[in-house]
Design a protein that fits this description.
By secondary structure, the protein is mainly β.
Length: 661
């Protein structure tokens, strides 16, 4: 009997040594969980039970339990190295069966499946091509193909408009000079414009008087008027030359604004004028009409057009202005010089009044015409300082966003914002009103005007934005802005062949898109007393891209990063937990299998229920405590030696008894 008891002790100590040795051997095994032996004593029993003075029959191993405590997290540089921080096991598929592991050293096989180092495929939810995760458990696969481009269909922005910004545009009355002397060819070097005075009354009641000089050019008058507050003026001039003749084979000197040109025909005169530098004849161009036998001279700056001929005594040239009779010029004749003065385009801003025009009386407003009668049909309402994308002085702020066509080619959409004036007496002009002008690649994208001379040309895409008195967006007046006339063009202004516009298209925009139409939303924008700012901007287009990296978040979602800067969800790692982890069966490769004692696995997303979170770029070390295991070695060795001593003592006792006989 002592021998059996001692042998059980030796066997128990030997098993403990094996368990401890296995723990020590796996001290560096990723995801390994240490084990321990759990012993129980043995007593001889009968049907009626053991006696009160029963002697034990030794020891036996009741269980080898594992410690599923958390191991230390060691960080690596591999995004597919995963560690579970908390409860849960990774799920693997091996030869059609499922196994469970805490070792997260994953990689990809030749087909892009995420696999453990034993070849088992990691399980989770897959995702569709749009990055939407489904709820079907299966093998996780990384798609390494090129991501297709996506056309921009939505642009969402949150902006702040500066409530203190100046109102740039204003309204006024436009007046085109209609005096009797305007555009009439005059013999000699003077235009014949008589002096004229007007009084301009400012909104504050003060009066400024402007007087033009005798024979002042339209360009000079416009320059002087522009220095008067409330007036804006531009000037232009034109003249028609005809009846040009000269001796055969000879040339005639035609002098235009002191520039002498030797020519033999009107066609040659056109070529010569248009070849001159702008400094020779500033703003002057010529167009020859061979059929009509005329040459049209135009001055964009409004200087007088002074024409003189010299040279061939037989040369003649007719000069006519837009109004009045033709003046024939003859070399050596009474008239060798003619002058055609320009016209004025004047804007009188709202709130300013023009009056006390001198000279007065019917028909004698020689230089300007009647500017004192607002009912004059020559007056038209216009916007002063109207928007011009090339003139920063005509808009308050601007922002640019990159958008993409159906080929994934980038284009620049620029939005210009112009604060609008408020007229309390005009119910159609509410306060806190801004206009937004949209251009793509510097080109207009508004729907064509069917009444225009060319009904195919794009117009300016202009939209209204309104705010409430508290600075929030007025949703009732402001809506989403649909661009329906964008034709993607290359740098040379040629069509790229990408999807074109669907003029008159509506929302919602079909998916996948069938045109280049896209929607702009400024929901959440504000008008506060701070500088203009783009608080957020999002557009859903992108160019093609290749896989450049992976990231895995705490919830187990695998994101792919592409060279086009986009990220796309490829799937989600799932974790499993068991009601009785001790019931799991170790099967090697740091894996466990489900048993009846473990219960059914509870599979869910990381970070939910009692499951831990995923740590990407990290591995869970073994939870073996080497110091503890070394102490266990000493204890097991002591137990082994003591049990062996029991056998030795029992042997000596038995030998003594035998010798007594």
């Amino acid at each position: 009997m002592p021998f059996d008891t001692a042998l059980s002790g030796i066997r128990a100590a030997s098993s403990e040594l094996e368990i401890t040795g296995n723990n020590i051997a796996n001290a560096s095994t990723t995801g390994f969980k240490s084990s321990r032996a759990e012993f129980g004593d043995v007593y001889a029993t009968s049907v009626l039970g053991a006696g009160s003075n029963a002697i034990g029959a030794g020891v036996e191993i009741q269980d080898i339990s594992q410690k599923f405590t958390q191991g230390n997290i060691a960080f690596t540089e591999n995004a597919l190295d995963l560690a579970v921080n908390g409860n849960g096991f990774f799920i693997l598929s091996e030869d059609g069966g499922r196994t469970y592991t805490r070792s997260g050293a994953f990689g990809m096989d030749a087909e892009g499946y995420v696999v453990a180092n034993n070849g088992g495929r990691l399980q989770g939810y897959s995702a569709d091509t749009a990055g939407n995760i489904n709820n079907v458990l299966g093998d996780l696969q990384i798609n390494q193909d090129i991501i297709d481009p996506r056309q921009t269909t939505d642009v969402d922005q949150q902006l702040n408009f500066d409530a203190t910004a100046d109102v740039l545009p204003s309204r006024g009355n436009n007046f085109i000079s209609t005096g009797a002397e305007i555009g009439v060819a005059q013999a000699g070097a003077l235009n014949g414009y008589s002096p004229q005075s007007i009084d301009i009354t400012n909104p504050d009641g003060s009066v400024v008087t402007y007087t033009s000089d005798q024979d002042a050019s339209a360009a000079t008058i416009a320059g002087e008027m522009n220095s008067v507050v409330g007036l804006t003026a531009t000037a232009s001039a034109s003249a028609t030359l005809s009846g040009f003749s000269n001796g055969a084979g000879t040339s005639t000197t035609v002098t235009i604004n002191n520039v002498a040109l030797d020519v033999a025909s009107l066609a040659e005169l056109e070529t010569t004028i248009n070849s001159l530098s702008n400094s020779a004849l500033p703003g002057i161009t010529a167009v020859h009409d061979a059929v009509a036998g005329t040459l049209e001279l135009s001055s964009t700056v409004g200087t007088d057009l002074i024409i003189n001929i010299a040279g061939d005594p037989a040369a003649t040239l007719g000069v006519a202005g837009p109004a009045g009779a033709n003046i024939p010029l003859v070399v050596g004749g009474a008239n060798q010089t003619a002058n055609v003065g320009g016209r004025l385009d004047i804007v009188v801003e709202d709130g300013y009044i023009v009056g006390n025009e001198v000279p007065s009386g019917t028909g004698i407003f020689q230089a300007l015409g009647d500017m004192t009668d607002p009912a004059n049909p020559e007056f038209t309402q216009v916007e002063v300082n109207s928007f011009d994308p090339d003139d920063p002085g005509t808009y308050n702020s601007a922002t640019s966003t990159t958008i993409y066509d159906s080929f994934g080619v980038p284009h620049v959409m620029t939005q210009y914002f112009v604060k609008q004036p408020f007229n309390p007496s005009d119910a159609t002009a509410p306060p806190n009103h801004w206009e937004m002008h949209v251009l793509v690649d510097g080109r207009d994208v508004g729907n064509p005007d069917p009444t225009a001379a060319d009904p195919t040309i794009a117009t300016r895409a202009t939209f209204d934005i309104y705010f409430n008195p508290n600075g929030s967006l007025d949703d009732l007046r402001t809506s989403e802005f649909l661009i329906t006339n964008w034709t993607p063009l290359n740098e040379n202004g040629e069509s790229t062949g990408a999807l074109g516009p669907n003029v008159g298209g509506t929302v919602p925009i079909p998916e996948p898109p069938i045109s280049s139409n896209f929607l702009i939303s400024v929901d959440g924008s504000t008008q506060f007393g701070t500088p203009f700012a783009v608080n957020s901007v999002y557009q859903n287009g992108f160019t093609a891209g290749q896989l450049s990296g992976l990231t895995v978040d705490e919830g187990g979602v695998i994101f792919a990063r592409f060279t086009n800067g986009e990220s796309l969800a490829l799937g989600q790692v799932l974790l499993a937990d068991f009601a009785n982890q001790q019931g799991l069966q170790p099967i090697g490769d740091t894996s466990w299998a489900q048993t009846f004692e473990s219960g059914e696995p509870v599979i869910n997303e990381p970070g939910t229920s009692s499951l831990g979170a995923i740590q990407s770029g990290a591995l869970e070390n073994s939870n073996v405590d080497l110091s503890e295991q070394l102490v266990q070695l000493i204890i097991a060795q002591r137990n082994f030696q003591a049990s062996a001593k029991t056998i030795e003592t029992a042997d000596q006792t038995t030998q003594t008894i035998i010798n007594l006989r």
